[in-house]
Amino acid sequence: MKFKCSSQIEAIKPYEAGKPLKEFAREYKMDKVIKLASNENALGFSPRVHDAVIRNLSQMNRYPEPVPHELCQKLAQKFNVSKKNIVIGNGSDDIIALLAHGYLNPGEEALMPLPSFLMYEISVRTAKGKPVMVPLVDFTTNLDGLIEKLTPQTRMVFITNPFNPTGASITTDDFNRFAQKVPDDVLIVVDEAYIEFVRDAAVYNSLARPLKDKRIVTLRTFSKAYGLAGFRVGYGIMDEQIAQILNRIRQPFNVNGLAQVAAVAALEDDIFLNQSITATHDGLDYLFSELNKMEIECLPTQANFFMLNVKADATKVFEDMLQYGVIVRSMKSYGYNTYLRINTGTMDENSAFIDALKQVLQKQAR
Ligand SMILES: Cc1ncc(COP(=O)(O)O)c(C=O)c1O
Which residue's alpha carbon is nearest to atom 7 within ligand 1? Predict the structure, then answer.
């Protein structure tokens, strides 16, 4: 081809999103589809979000606020930080990309676990940085392994807690031991997309003592516990100087008007948030108990999803589950050939998943 993209970009493996529901329903000619593949919130979102979006729809001929004032104010209050410490993004994906672009010179290194949430690698490569990947040990972030890979070229390290795709988590003690060994000039990006679902009090939460350590950048999202994945809003809490850099390079209107309104309304409804979290825990308990009866090993999780070992070709099981209208995630492309990852759905969806899995595995055993 005449036009050659940069070699860094050529090396990027495209992000494989879970198939959108509509596309799936069209392809398989099904009207009822159960999607448990993208760690979304099956309960939907708060009715307050619905009302606020409808109320504000007629304003959408106007540009949104470049810095979402009300949203920043609410988050600042919630976490006891200043508005100057907050950056809002078009999903937390946006902030991952801003960090890579803001803090990596060509060839400089960003450490991350392998496998990881793919946007870390994509963002680092797009920023012409060098991703340095450290394989998991027993499905868990290898903190010592990350430390071993630090070099004078390292500018940032990505930590996901709880971890996607395995659901594993890092305790406060382990995190503190790790952070002590990271040099002062290396950013520690702590992605807490699933932190609201954590049940174990020993799990590290970077906003328990926000901004105590200037190296720590916390990433959070409205896509999971708040159920706003389609609106695209995430946020980062960080040292003021870092926030200034990210705000300097982001698109001026990176968070659209309805997304701003939706996120503010979502923060005003703790009842819905708590219902979401409780439903997720109930769903996890039900699924673990049913899978246990089927003698299927499930990895422990602190998130709204988990991995299970079906002891069969995961992609084949994924494909067969589609025939029952259930979309799960095969972990084969992550190197876990016999593992699926699913998130919790509604109770009806959870039990439909169990029924479908029983049938698929029985059929495959024949
Ligand atoms: C670990 C992790 N970080 C970030 C994100 C991105 O979230 P957002 O929808 O806010 O871009 C996801 C989404 O699945 C995720 O799993």
Answer: 92
